[in-house]
Amino acid sequence: MARRKGFLRFIGGTLKGIDITRRVVIDLIFIAIVIVILVVVFRPKAPVLPATAALYLKPRGMLVEQVPDRLRRAQQRLLGRQPFPVVRVRDLINALDTARTDPRIRAVVLNLNDFVGGELPQLARVSRALKQFESSGKPVIAYAANYGQGAYYLAAVANKTYLTTQQGLVAVLGLSAYRNYYKNLLDKLKVQWHVFRVGKYKSFVEPFTRNGMSPAAKRENTVLLDALWKNYLDRVARARHLQPADLAGFVNHLPAALAATNGNAAAAARRAGLITGVLTVPEIRAQLTKLVGVNSATRNGYNRIGLAAYLAARQPAARLANRSWNQVAIIVAQGDIVPGAAPQGTVGSLTLTRLIDRAARDERIKAVVLDVDSPGGSALAADEILHAELNLKRTGKPLVVSMSGLAASGGYWISMAANRIYASAGTITGSIGIFAMFPTFQQTLAWAGIHRDGVETSPLADFGDPLRAVSPDAAKVFQLIIKHGYAEFTGKVAKYRNLPLSHIDAIAQGRVWPGVDAKRIGLVDEIGGLGMAVRTAAKLAKLQRYGVTYLAPRLKPYDKFLVGMSRNTTAQIMLGHLFGGSDIGSISLMVRPALAGIKRILTLRDPNGIYAYCFCDAIAEVK
Q1: What is the predicted pLDDT for the residue at 236?
Q2: Contact 389, 347 (CB under 8 A)
Q3: Which residues contact 617 (CB under 8 A, 6 or more apart)?
Q4: N or C, which end of the chain has less CB nearby within 10 Å?
Q5: Residues of the chain falling short of pLDDT 70
Q6: How many angstroms separate the CA atoms of 534 and 548, rounded?
Q7: What is the secondary structure of 524-577 as a DSSP string?
């Protein structure tokens, strides 16, 4: 009887297991079918390039070297929440370079209505690509209802630059650098903010220790802004066949220019030579229809192809040919430097060192270009990246750095050991110095009626407790560590740049330099962009023919699927409608700026609380 019951239990358990297995298999098949259906439904159609067309460029948001956190942005789009738009510099340049020799592309149309701007070196690279496109004899036509300074930098180079309304404005007004200062607020909250630094120009800490900008910081920022503004005026004036002094005069005496046209800003811009004229969008379309033909599908527009579609149509063949050659790898280091892994848009030491190690191991990669656009961050993370670069160089592969808009403090730390360093005239670099800062809240607790007490075995046993005052011994420890860190930083710069330590100490002190001055004092080798850096890397590696490969962290298959889905308009509409498009948990615009500086320090995550950081990205951006 017992055997019979045991046998029946065995049979029952087996059948139950088979049933569970059957359900799992059916579910997996169902999921696979759903994925296949989604891929088929949402797969974008192959772009069709008309026989004659205009390349239609409508950059939205800010220029970037790489799209930050692609997976998070894809998830936001699929949930109906649009992340802040960005456009990659290299996508614009690749499209323009390809279109220059493409007989089907007869013109470039630059719609700048939604373009915010970017860093000056990024704008300069796109501007040069537009100018090179024009050298083929094909026109560039730019238009917008209003031009900000970043948008106008690109529009100025066009053959024809239009405002689309008589109420339009060319808002070229100059550059400024302002920050919020929180000392009074911190005093009212009884927060003790402790700062340890070396270098009289390390002004990142000032908002927490002062109520205004220090004279040293004002001098530094004035020099920087004057250099950037001169560069802007020179480039724009040359593009518009004007004298920089005339353009500066228009900006400095805008009220008089407007008075001469009875307040008509568009007429004032035309009178100053900043625009070709004022045309409505239908009038611009009519011009383009004559140039490239009528769109056969809509019958009311001109033949055109957008940036994404054009790259999709033209790049596969180029990539295939590119793979057959030895490679120069480009690795982008954009954003704050933090320890460990991090998504694109932030320089994670582990993420970046893995890419550098990958380049060192790959036999087809013969040289590496590090494209740096970073204000720095964790000193420890920056040093880990530096060690990976030294390991790469030991393999015999040259390392060349191309500084974009910003390569300061920790951004310079990860640049200094390169065989060659390129910077643009408007690059912000240097800021060789380190600091530590943190708050303690013992006075805040006392004000609230809370008192903290206890015992300890040694003077530094409570070291790092944010609810206790910093003892004189602890303060001395921090200052000695910072002093040692500064000596390490300057010593390494002297070693890798082959310059006397006394010279480096004189130009360091946390001071920030524009690219032209950085070359003069030996912090960079040449003024030039990414293209020159790539050519130099190939030359150092003795390559005659070579391809260019961008190395980036590989997405997992599911993550890659999500990113692909997020680029499909139909999928975005359907899923956005399903999940809703409102973004909850937003912080008041009045509170957000006050928290931004503290939050930024916390996200850098240096385990020792020591940072090589420059708060100069706001200065670098031209909007």
Answers
A1: 96
A2: no
A3: 375, 405, 406
A4: N
A5: 1-48, 69-83, 199-202, 296-300, 315-324, 555-611, 613, 615, 617-618
A6: 8
A7: -SEE--HHHHHHHHHHHTT-SS-EEEEE-PPPPHHHHHHHHHHT-HHHHHHHHH
Closest CA to 326 of 294, 364, 296: 364
The pLDDT, as a whole number, for residue 31 is: 58
Site of tokens 């802007």: 232
In terms of Cα–Cα distance, which of 129, 150, 133 is closest to 59?
150
In sign, the C-alpha dihedral spanning 134, 138, 141, 142 is negative
- Domain spanning 53-177+211-311: which CATH class is it, in words? alpha beta
Q: What is the pLDDT of residue 558?
A: 43
Instruction: Name beta bridge partners: 400.
Output: 369, 420
Residue 50: other Cβ atoms inside 10 A: 17
What is the spatial distance between Cα 108 and Cα 116, in angstroms, rounded to a whole number?
Answer: 19
pLDDT at 152: 97
The letter for the amino acid at 514 is: P
Q: For the residues of 265-317, what is the DSSP string, one character each?
A: HHHHHHHTTS-SEE--HHHHHHHHHHHH-B-TTTSSSB-EEEHHHHHHHHHHH
Please confirm, yes or no, whether 409 is among the known catalytic residues: yes
Single out the catalytic residue among 409, 415, 424, 566.
Answer: 409
What pTM does this model have? 0.81
**Three-class secondary structure of residue 357 per DSSP:** helix
CA–CA gap between residue 232 and residue 242 (Å, rounded): 13
CB burial string 109-120: b at 16+ within 10 A, e below: bbbbeebbbbbb
Catalytic residue among 127, 138, 202, 203: 202
Distance CA(243)–CA(451), nearest Å, equals 67
Cα(548)–Cα(322) distance, rounded to whole angstroms? 7
Single out the residue of 127, 124, 111 nearest to residue 60, CA to CA: 111
What is the side-by-side order of every strand in the sheet holding 105-111?
277-278, 160-163, 140-144, 105-111, 53-57, 304-306
Closest CA to 537 of 345, 330, 355, 233: 330
CA distance 77 to 424: 34
How would you write 142-173 as a 3-class SS string? EEECCECHHHHHHHCCCCEEEECCCCCCECCC
Cβ atoms of 368 and 326 closer than 8 Å: no
- Domain map of the chain by residue range? 53-177+211-311
pLDDT digits (tens, 9 = 90+) for 39-74: 444 455 556 677 889 999 999 999 999 887 655 555
Residue 202 catalytic? yes
